[in-house]
Amino acid sequence: MRDIAAGTIGITNYAASALGDVVYVELPALDLEVSAGDSIGAVESVKSASDIMTPVGGKVIATNEKLEEKPGTINKGPEDEGWIAKIEVGDAKELDGLMGLEEYQKHTEET
User: Fold this and answer.
1) Residue 16: which H helix or E strand, with range?
2) What DSSP element (H or E) covers 106?
3) Which of 81, 33, 78 is nearest to 60 (CA)?
4) CA 44 to chain CA centroid, nearest Å
5) What is the DSSP letter of 74?
6) I need a surface site. Which of 9, 20, 22, 61 has the fewest CB within 10 A?
7) Which value, to the nearest 10 degrees, does the dihedral of the CA atoms of residues 28, 32, 33, 37 take?
8) pLDDT digits (tens, 9 = 90+) for 17-51
């Protein structure tokens, strides 16, 4: 029996601030099989539009349907109630290559 890792995909506070007011979110389809780096949807704001990329491969198991009617939820809590999708991770080893919180904060301070 293998452990199945699940993760939440969204944008960070830093990214939400850079985007500005979000006006539209395109969510991925449930059960969509994806590979790391695939586009699974899009976020549009008054400033720009950006693809939502998945950092790991797997299968989309949930989407935040609240964002379809209230896309601004991303601006209010991008790392909380503004999550975009949940994914069943296909290979948990891919998680090892992701940045941790402190590493990400350092990265955003440098840019």
Assistant:
1) helix 13-19
2) helix 101-110
3) 33
4) 14
5) H
6) 20
7) -10
8) 999 999 999 999 999 999 999 999 999 999 999 99
